[in-house]
Amino acid sequence: MVGQQPIITTLKNQVVSGRIAHAYLFCGSRGTGKTSTAKILAKAINCEHPKDGDPCNECVHCLQADREESLDIIEIDAASNNGVDEIRDLRDTVKYPPQSGKYKVYIIDEVHMLSTSAFNALLKTLEEPPAYVVFILATTEPQKLPETILSRCQRFDFGRLALGDIQNRLDEAVRKAGAEADPGALMMIARAAEGGMRDAFSILDMCLGAGKKVDEPLVRSILGTSDRSFLFRFAGALLEGEAGEALAMISELFQSGRDPAVFSKEMSGHFRLLVIAKTCGEQAQASLQELTPEDYGEYLRQSEGATVTRLMKIMEHFMNLETELRYFSSPRFALENTALKCMIKTGDADPQSLMDRIAELEKRIGELAAGGVQKAEKSSDFARKDSSTAAQSPAQATPAAPSVDPADLRAVESALLEVLKRKEPGLPGIMKQGHIYRFEGDTLFWAPKAGPAASAFVKSLNMEARKKIIAEVLKEITGKPVSFQATDPPEGGKDSREEQNDQKYIQNLVSTFGEGPVQVVEES
């Protein structure tokens, strides 16, 4: 058995201890080992000399089971024997004891296909079976079974197999067949099998039929898939809005005979990995066993130029295309239409387009703030002529020098919050819980508003990493090396901001009434 280790361990322990249940229910998707486990369990509980819960494969019962000659193991296909009459016949044969073994085992495959009346006929037998009878039910759709059946069985859920387990099993099969296979080719087969060992063996059989050397080009030709570089190039064309290149690649895809449904599924998986790389960064690399560190690095680089919402939107487009392709008379038109929809980023009523445009503007503003405004190159002849004329004049646009005075606390605080919104979005929310109240020497002092969380805000802003970021921004907006310090609220007296407000108030009074004495007369 490949994988399913918790289930195998439990069943082996039951065989060793002799605590065999009267009914088992094996659930799971196709090719995960339900029927194979049922046959091995039937051999093990009748084996004369089991080894740690495994059948010995040497006694008479094991050899009969291998040759499918055992009268004590009855396998029934419920998909073709789903009527009440077949279950009634089964109920009549249950009363006969096993011929040679300790147990009489009934394996009912695809049990969810039984009719309602057949389930009713089976229910009484499951409820009170003879001590020598064991039922093993296997199904891919346990939700279709009645609750009365589920409650009388020990249920085991078979999960999809891991890619590494499938790859190792395929490598073993290739070596026993006297052939050779590249690890990358086996990993492609494992991914295409989607956790099913039976599907993986089917694909491997097709590849071995074409030759004794299994490599990645052969697997791609058998599966009708594209190589990873093609997926990266196509995704890059969508993200950059290169419509001509994307349509040319679609034409290349159809000329090579690729299945558009398979390609749509591959693009959905590609953008899923881009979303993971964008949201999780390098933290998700260990959980993605199908990717090498180099491949995951490519996903990280490609995800940098797009927002998470846009990547998810493109993934949704291709997921919808997977299901809709079966209804289109021209799959090529549907694929081209989806590709063009993925490139549209402008629209008055599309919130996603607005979000993309805002993100792009924020990115450009950040670049301008970091490196200064650079003059854009003109492309038209008139623009070139105009720029050459302007070059002769002394009026050239130059970035303005920082003009914020550190002593102007209100202006410094406003500019500081504005720049931090771009560089460190988490800091403005904390700094708004207080204000800058004094400039002394080369240090700006900040204090929180009085409250139970005041000390927490001070401790958070006094972290060395955050003080360094704030100091860099202060130097950027003032043109001077200014340090930052968060303190507790000042006790007694007025801070510098209040003093500045008082001075402005006095200046306004002087400018209005003059410096001499003023007589105030109340008029009726």
| Order of strands in the sheet with most strands | 2-3-4-1-5
Summed up, the domain count is: 4
Helix content: 55-70%
Outline: elongated
The name of the CATH topology of the largest domain is: Rossmann fold
What fraction of the residues are assigned to beta strands by DSSP? 5-15%
N-to-C terminal Cα separation, in Å?
A: 105 Å
**CATH top level assignment of the largest domain:** Alpha Beta
Average residue pLDDT: 80
Please tally the helical runs, counting DSSP H or I stretches of 4 or more residues. Answer: 23
Structural class: alpha/beta
CATH homologous superfamily heading of the largest domain:
P-loop containing nucleotide triphosphate hydrolases
Integer-rounded radius of gyration? 37 Å
Flag low-confidence runs: 374-401
Q: Please report the total strand number as a whole number.
A: 10
Query: Architecture of the largest domain in CATH?
Result: 3-Layer(aba) Sandwich
How would a crystallographer describe the biggest sheet? 5 strands, parallel
Detail the topology: elements first, then pairings.
Blueprint: H1 5-17, E1 23-28, H2 34-46, H3 60-66, E2 73-77, H4 84-93, E3 104-109, H5 116-127, E4 133-139, H6 147-150, E5 154-158, H7 163-176, E6 180-181, H8 183-193, H9 197-210, E7 213-214, H10 216-223, H11 228-240, H12 243-255, H13 260-280, H14 293-303, H15 308-324, H16 331-343, H17 351-371, H18 381-392, H19 409-423, H20 426-431, E8 434-440, E9 443-448, H21 454-461, H22 464-478, E10 483-486, H23 496-513
Parallel strand pairs: 1-4, 1-5, 2-3, 3-4, 6-7, 9-10
Antiparallel strand pairs: 8-9
